[in-house]
# Entry
Amino acid sequence: MFITKWILQLDEDPPSHIVTPALHKNREQIRDTFRDKKGYAKSDTPEELASFAREQLRQDFLSADVGITGCNFAIAESGSVTLVTNEGNAEMITSLPDTQISVMGMERLVPTWEDMEVLVSLLTRAAVGQKLTSYITTITGTRIEEEIDGPDDYHLVIVDNGRSKILGTEFQSALHCIRCAACINVCPVYRHIGGHAYNSIYPGPIGAVLTPLLDGYEDHKELPYASSLCAACIEACPVKIPLHEHLIRHREIIVEEEKKSPVSEKIMMKGFAQWASNPAAYKLSTKVARTALKPWTKDEYVENGPGPLKGWTDVRDFPAPAKQSFRSWWNKRQKGGEA
Amino acid sequence: MAIQNRDSFLSNLAANLGRPQKREAVIRPEYSVQPQREVFKDYSTEQLIEVLKEHCKVIHTDFVRTDKSDLQAALVKVLEGYEATSIIASNDKRNQEYGLDKTYEELSKEMDIHLWDPRLGKENQVIAERTDVGISFSDITLAESGTVALMTNKDNGRSISLMPKCYIAIIPKETIVPRMTQAASKIHKDNENGTIPPSSICFVTGPSNSADIEMNLIVGVHGPVKVTYIVVN
# Structure
């Protein structure tokens, strides 16, 4: 298994990134985990940590009866499963134990080897910037007669787990995801809050799109708001999933169909709608705004605004309303007055 | 082979897509854009070898080029560099063609040589685990990524390239193609013509590595720590 996934397993800690799962841990923490759980006594240099893990896991690989892997791509034409790794962990797991179980998301399927090749090239480039990772392992069924390596008993489990509900919907393109994490790496929100904040094994923009689809809006209604809609994710996505458009649509559904926005926000939005759709109220506000804000205005800028303005002026100044509103300027101009 | 829940799975898909279950095969479209076929398209073998040699620097792999007649000397030199005392190698038909059978015979006077032997069963894996160097032939070599495609058979186990600390790939010059596209196309065409792919095809690109601990690159994780490619004319 991945060294870092082993670290997380020892620590009973969930992953925070889909390509580098222990991104949130530093070397000192990893050394402490090894020391506490496995009696490790060496330094915290990554080389020594990795060589300790190599030694420990080798014994597990050699003695295991069953190997369990995921599946990056399954090739329909020959019934093959492709695994993309750098450490060689998938090679070990698919070579040594006699029984193998591969767990495959139902959308991992490609028609032919030629299609697999295109997607693997996209994946390795977008995930880690490599032409190909160190190991692209393709296995086709059990070992054949007289072969030694590979399983003699092979099980493929195709997992739906909510994916089929996405088929045929406006979110279907989210199933194109090849799990490269490019959207996660460029996301300014992910970079600030980290992977655990998403409360899902899929963090970042793709997580914010997928998690509510797989697990419902109830527990994940904040996720579609965890985005500045800057669209960096769409630019990075190798399979061109319109991620931020999906996020906007999620927000729309949460507010309009699921009615899951907070009560205070509902009341505020209702009030705003009434005020903004009443010309007299609107006119009056623009007229008195300048006078009303006078106590907080200094040199044409509001510094410490009251009420809803406070959130803005806490971090930057707000320009004071102009002496003359656009409407009154327009009316004057129409009458032939000075523009 | 048993397939469980197939019908309910497929009818669920059809229902979600709002159409009846498809009974006829899907026809694969002709892709109008295929940039992968343009990479190093008209390169000669010599040019591809240059690409491979350059890329070896990126993937922490030593590159050696030699003639068939000098293969033994080149191999011995690499083995000396690895301070090898034991070798596991595939029992490949090409061993004779490349004179490796004689090389192994001579080397066996001074070190442990094990040729993959299906009669020994799992013992092969145990030997591979404690051996210094694994040696096998590349079946298809990808210049762009510096990758050797290794096809398993009864005389060539996957453990050879995986378990020992060091791995040496013998690359016959004629196995070199521009990139993975050509390898995938060949396997696809063979499959269409009725040749099922080997039980495992491993595309190996240099030594195993990981950058998962604080993004520091570590070369040599579960698989080999050092790798050499020997391109043979």
